[in-house]
Amino acid sequence: MRERFWELPLSRLDREEWEALCDGCGKCCLNKIEYEDTGELAFTRVACKLLDGHSCQCSSYANRHDFVPDCVVLTPRKLKEIAWWLPSTCAYRLRHEGRPLYKWHPLISGDPETVHSAKVSVRGWTVSEAEVTEEDWEDHIIEELS
User: What is the pTM of this model?
Assistant: First the structure.
């Protein structure tokens, strides 16, 4: 990968660089509630059934659409439409908005554990959607993730 590739415009990243931009926080795998009447978005601690709550990684990333057909495939083009529902700390959202990555981001720190030690990831505090009915998601609403 190119040196400091994360500072380039997102459209110039190759596939490997694009994937490496992910900080591994797991926040994008949290279920959200969008209120139709207000357009408000609420994050929950209810995670996709494929999220490993410790590693904050998808347990079947390459085949996730076999299990979760509506899992979003994030691309530079799609990012323009959905950046608003990504957490404010998300590297894709930050770069889309022209902002730099945080110092805890693994590309900056050189250590994939810094996202967890900075307490930015969802490590250890999610509940699987396999354990909570969608009607009960409101019981698991959390503050905006920062």
Answer: 0.88
